[in-house]
Amino acid sequence: MLKGIDPLLSPELLHTLAAMGHGDEIVLVDCHFPAVSIAQRLVRLDGVTLLDAARAVLSVLPIDTFIDEPVAGMRMVETPDVIPDVQAEVFDAVWESEGREIGVERVERFAFYDRARRAFAVVATGENRPYGCVILTKGLVL
């Protein structure tokens, strides 16, 4: 254990976050997402909600300030203009963590899968609510 580090940040996840560079993306997904077949690097947080995983990641990961929408969420297929509660909770956590408004991009399901394939890593959570899928773009520590 380390002082001041969220216990959800396993050695594997801490290494992944530290290895990311500015502009790299990390994808946090629910238990329904095809993470094993999509991820270049997969970190598992089974049994952890999307919000708890996001809060842990946000405790150490700066969000990019150089792009307008450094956070993204998967659009729902049936109602693409509706933001599911599971994503809204994470967006609120990002804004709280950063202390500023953050632009959020909405991404069609298959485009989200394509982007996840190119992401630095995918974190598979135990979140059971559908569409618990978000992307965070790493910024700089100033």
Task: Walk me through the structure.
It is a single chain. The chain contains five helices and six strands, in the order αβαβαβαβαββ. The protein has 142 residues and is an alpha/beta fold. It has one domain (21-137): 3-Layer(aba) Sandwich (RbsD-like fold). It has a six-stranded mixed β-sheet with strand order 2-5-1-6-3-4. Helix 4 links the parallel strand 3 and strand 4 (104-107). Helix 3 packs parallel to helix 4. The protein is globular.
Keywords for this entry:
single chain; RbsD-like fold; alpha/beta; 142 residues; 18% strand
Mean pLDDT: 97
Count of extended strands: 6
Strand and helix order: HEHEHEHEHEE
Named CATH topology? RbsD-like fold
Structural class: alpha/beta
Main beta-sheet annotation: 6 strands, mixed
What's a concise summary of this model?
The protein is α/β, with parallel strands linked by helices and 142 residues long. It contains five helices and six strands, in the order H-E-H-E-H-E-H-E-H-E-E.
